[in-house]
Specification:
The structure is a single chain. Strand 11, helix 8 and strand 12 form a beta-alpha-beta unit. This protein folds into two domains: 221 residues, Alpha-Beta Complex (Quinone Oxidoreductase, Chain A, domain 1); 154 residues, Rossmann fold (3-Layer(aba) Sandwich), CATH 3.40.50.720. 27% of the residues lie in helices and 22% in strands. It is α/β, with parallel strands linked by helices. Helix 6 crosses helix 7, helix 6 crosses helix 12 and helix 9 packs parallel to helix 10. Keywords: Metal-binding, Zinc. Its cofactor is Zn(2+).
Length: 383
């Protein structure tokens, strides 16, 4: 089959790779219909994360059609249209039973590398190397889906592929941000980053009853999307003192909840952890979020981080009495609810699929996405 593969730092190519096969009784094979780029891919492309090898297939946010099921798969049949959670979890370990699917004990075959990096293994992820499982990604014609009854969900009739594909990762990540922030009616919420995750976090905050939601970014096209498609307030950091403006919009206190949805993609390269070599990353947006948040408020870290960070304002966290929370998305908890909201037209995401390309143009799609060129928020591939 054809797949978009990593060929070395900054280099991608479409090549022929072996077709996936069922390896376990709970596996199924999905023919990919949509597979989207994601900011979590960018550290892979720039060489920030070790273990990736030439020929590894990228991609983790996808939707497709079931073509084969293992003997223990009960929830899915051949020809079902499904969206697959980007986080690979067993559904049976202690963490999964608590709803902490991204903390799964069994989702990462390469547990030793994860323990070296983070102290404990976590859930796997499609299209990521060693510490996140080493599973082949979704920028391909077919994907093996382990723990299929846990991580795949039937898409309701009437929900388009372009809408449903975002239920794989970006939409549950956005909902996670509001859960961690415990966003409630009357809150003022600020979100740094107007990409797909930032916009969907803002939308989730509004659905939960937030009084004001402000999205901070410096790209005109994305800020227009925030206002037009999300209904949140855009704030261009190029022209204002962001913390001062946020205090002005929140009764002089600062936002109740500040969500960082930028990550390390714009920072200088660093490896997975200091133990593995390389320098620390600089949390520019996160640092501003800590300073802007009201005393006693909550700062949520949603951006992709893999190791140590430098110049983190811990003194501000302690002296202001802030709560700092973070996680990878536990999508298995929220994807059914998000699909229902999509079916009721309460959650619209298709505007985020700004560029549609065939798989053969995968390298072009990533160049557009990486550079935010031509108004690209997400490039979506159709094998």
């Amino acid at each position: 089959m054809r797949a978009l593969c990593w060929e070395g730092t900054g280099t991608l190519a479409v090549r022929q790779v072996p077709d996936p096969e069922l390896r376990n009784a709970q596996d199924m094979i999905v023919r990919v219909r949509r597979s989207a780029t994601c900011g979590a891919d960018l550290p892979l492309l720039t060489g920030r994360i070790p273990y990736l090898a030439a020929g590894d297939v990228l991609g983790h946010e996808f939707l497709g059609e079931v073509v084969e099921v293992g003997p223990e798969v009960r929830r899915h049949r051949v020809a079902d249209r499904v969206v697959v959670c980007a986080a690979i979890a067993c559904g049976a370990c202690w963490f999964c039973r608590q709803g902490l699917f991204a903390c799964c004990d069994n989702g990462t075959p390469g547990a030793a590398a994860a323990e070296s990096a983070w102290g404990q293994p976590t859930a796997g992820c499609y299209g990521h190397p060693g510490p996140l499982g080493g599973f082949a990604g979704s920028h391909a014609e077919y994907v093996r889906v382990p723990y299929a009854d846990v991580g795949a969900f039937t898409v309701p009739d009437g929900v388009s592929d372009d809408r449903a594909v975002f239920a794989s990762d970006a939409a549950p990540t956005g909902w996670l941000g509001t859960e961690l922030g415990e966003v409630a009616p009357g809150d003022v919420v600020a979100v740094w980053g107007a990409g797909a995750v930032g916009q969907l976090t803002a939308g989730a905050a509004l659905l939960r009853g937030a009084d004001r939601v402000i999205v901070v970014d410096g790209h005109d096209d994305r800020l227009r999307m925030v206002e037009r498609h999300v209904g949140a307030e855009p704030l261009d950091y190029r022209y204002v003192d962001v913390p001062a403006e946020l205090r002005e919009r929140s009764g002089g206190r600062g936002p109740d909840v500040c969500v960082e949805a930028v990550g390390m993609a714009a920072d200088p390269p660093g490896l997975l952890t200091g133990r593995l070599g390389g320098g620390a990353d600089r949390p520019l947006a996160l640092r501003e979020a800590v300073h802007a948040c009201r005393k006693g408020g909550t700062v949520v870290v949603l951006g992709t981080w893999t190791g140590f960070v430098d110049t983190f304002p811990l003194g501000a966290v302690m002296n202001k009495g802030l709560t700092v929370r973070s996680a990878r998305q536990h999508g298995q908890r929220w994807i059914p609810m998000l699909l229902e909201r999509m079916a009721r037209d309460e959650l619209r995401t298709e505007h985020l699929a700004t560029h549609h390309l065939p798989l053969e143009r995968g390298p072009d799609g990533y160049a557009l996405f990486r550079d935010r060129a031509d108004g690209c928020v997400r490039a979506v591939f159709s094998p």
